[in-house]
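User: Can you recover a sequence for this backbone? Please restate the input before giving your answer.

Assistant: Of course. Working from this structure:
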């Protein structure tokens, strides 16, 4: 993306969020800049009143204009009056700065909240095929780290605009005192900007490299946490530590280079500012004989003005260093289509009393190698249907087609004669319960895990009833706090069979009409597998069950078998 287009696109996203509030911030900034400049200019007549001799010899146009204005209004130009106006201006600047700071801070935080919420909604509402082909680390990094950096980026965007308006206001005032000296300062500042352009480019490169290093470090942390038991058993903690330290050290190196790059620019601006101020003071006093009152105000103006050039450069560097983060957010926002949640009415349900029919479907990941070609079958209600076959034959793919996660190229799925369409898929999915091979748990209480995504309300008595159905009530009753037991790292707190029974209870609490189990017992020993299968036999009069497995020995539990080996 071209840099000009990038800046326009990034600012466009920012501007579209509450533009009226953003315009208010700019107006406040402009007013504050000119107000601060005017306050400094008031020092000229104030100093003239303190030194009458200096005031009478001064030919300063601004003093004469102010004196004429006050004479026409009939206001006595006393020291008390000038001090009151001066104090009033300073107080108004302070009050307006307070309000502007609060408005800007709230605006930035709400913008960050808005973008994070919008992106997360787009992610979770996107198609399964999209999510299945994306790295979770990229999405985690964007939502947790890069979105806040985007808010920082816009903070400096506003700060840059603030300083630019501040410079414009002070330059306007300075031109009223001395055109030549003001132009000298502007030319000097612009020249320093030009000479430091390569440092700004380097800032962007270092910022992008730092973003990539952070992603690598995030991956190293997850690598260890995902294999923590293996790391302990293999005594390979040092290996994971070394991998982590490599990326950590790399990121530190980039950060140190960023600091050095920024410090060099600050130093050069400081030196240029000192030299410029000394030259202005010397020439103004020794050559052009500028009155002391005007000279003093010029020094104040330029002492405030030139550091703004350095501030603009710092803000520009801060913005550029975060462009990598902003690009990641913008790319994710652009790549993921926005979908609204389709929530079914609570009373609406799809009847499933007879059969679920697979009608002449064709599906392939690669066009020349179809997994299903004119495939038809049926699943009877109130039975256990086993889907069996060797690895890679399409067992999980068929489950994904039944749930609507994958759409067949030809053919259709129907339930009791009703064809599943994009319009009624949300209703159909609310009728499903899905249990994969690896059960999922959150860090929380057992109760929170059991009712995690169920749309129904359940009291504790009902929770225990369902736990008894799957022979898991004893797992809870033996815990000190029962359902309120807080558990982390479930894989190490419960055995594989216990986890699957708890996960099965959670699925059943959704009151599904169709229960889909995808290799749900493949990691269990024969005893635990037998317990799960016996539970299923007791459940089939309450829910239709589809069981995916590669184990031939489980055929005895199935009322119907769909053998994909012959597909």
């Amino acid at each position: 993306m071209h840099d000009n287009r990038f800046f326009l696109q990034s600012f466009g996203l920012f501007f579209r969020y509450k533009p009226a509030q953003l315009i208010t911030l700019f107006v406040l900034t402009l007013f504050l800049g000119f107000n601060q400049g005017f306050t400094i200019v008031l020092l000229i007549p104030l100093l003239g009143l303190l030194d009458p001799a200096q005031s009478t010899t001064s030919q300063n146009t601004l003093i004469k204009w102010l004196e004429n204005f006050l004479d026409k209004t009939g206001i006595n130009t006393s020291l008390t009056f000038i001090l009151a106006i001066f104090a009033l201006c300073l107080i108004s600047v302070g009050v307006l700065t307070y309000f502007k700071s609060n408005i800007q801070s709230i605006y930035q935080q709400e913008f960050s909240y808005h973008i994070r919420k919008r992106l997360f909604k787009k992610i979770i509402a996107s198609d399964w095929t999209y999510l299945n082909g994306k790295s979770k680390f990229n999405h985690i990094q964007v939502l947790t780290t890069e979105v806040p950096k985007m808010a920082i980026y816009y903070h400096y965007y506003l700060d840059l605009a603030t300083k630019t308006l501040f410079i414009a206001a002070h330059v306007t005032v300075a031109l009223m005192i001395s055109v030549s000296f003001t132009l000298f300062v502007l030319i000097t500042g612009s020249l320093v900007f030009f000479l430091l352009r390569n440092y700004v480019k380097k800032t962007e490169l270092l910022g992008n490299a730092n973003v990539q290093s952070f992603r690598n470090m995030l991956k190293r942390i997850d690598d260890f946490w995902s294999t923590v038991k293996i790391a302990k058993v293999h005594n390979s903690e040092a290996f994971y530590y070394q991998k982590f330290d490599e990326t950590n050290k790399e990121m530190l190196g980039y950060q140190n280079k960023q600091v050095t790059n920024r410090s060099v620019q600050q130093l050069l601006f400081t030196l240029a500012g000192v030299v410029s101020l000394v030259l202005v003071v010397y020439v103004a006093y020794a050559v052009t004989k500028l009155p002391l009152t005007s000279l003093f105000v010029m020094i104040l103006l330029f002492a405030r003005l030139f550091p703004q050039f350095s501030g603009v450069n710092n803000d520009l560097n801060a913005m550029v260093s975060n462009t990598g983060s902003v690009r990641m957010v913008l790319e994710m926002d652009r790549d993921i289509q926005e979908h609204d949640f389709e929530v079914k009415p609570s009373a609406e349900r799809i009847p499933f009393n007879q059969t679920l029919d697979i009608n002449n479907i064709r599906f392939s990941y690669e066009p020349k190698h179809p997994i299903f070609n004119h495939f038809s079958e049926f699943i009877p209600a109130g039975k256990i249907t086993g889907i069996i076959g060797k690895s890679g034959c399409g067992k999980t793919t068929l489950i994904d087609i039944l749930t609507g996660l994958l759409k067949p190229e030809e053919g259709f799925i129907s339930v009791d004669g009703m064809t599943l369409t994009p319009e009624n898929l949300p209703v159909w999915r609310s009728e499903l319960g899905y249990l994969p091979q690896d059960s999922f748990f959150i860090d929380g209480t057992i109760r929170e895990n059991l009712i995690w995504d169920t749309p129904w309300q359940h009291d504790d008595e009902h929770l225990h009833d369902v736990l008894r159905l799957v022979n898991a009530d004893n797992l809870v009753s033996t815990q000190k706090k029962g359902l309120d037991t807080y558990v982390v790292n479930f894989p190490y707190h419960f055995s594989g069979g216990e986890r699957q029974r708890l996960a099965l209870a959670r699925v059943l609490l959704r009151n599904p009409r169709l229960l889909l189990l995808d290799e749900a017992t493949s990691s269990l020993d024969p005893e635990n597998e037998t317990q799960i299968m016996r539970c299923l036999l007791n459940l089939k009069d309450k829910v239709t069950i589809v069981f995916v497995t590669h184990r031939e020995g489980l055929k005895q539990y199935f009322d119907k078998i769909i053998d994909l080996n012959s597909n």
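That completes the design. The chain has 22 helices and eleven strands.
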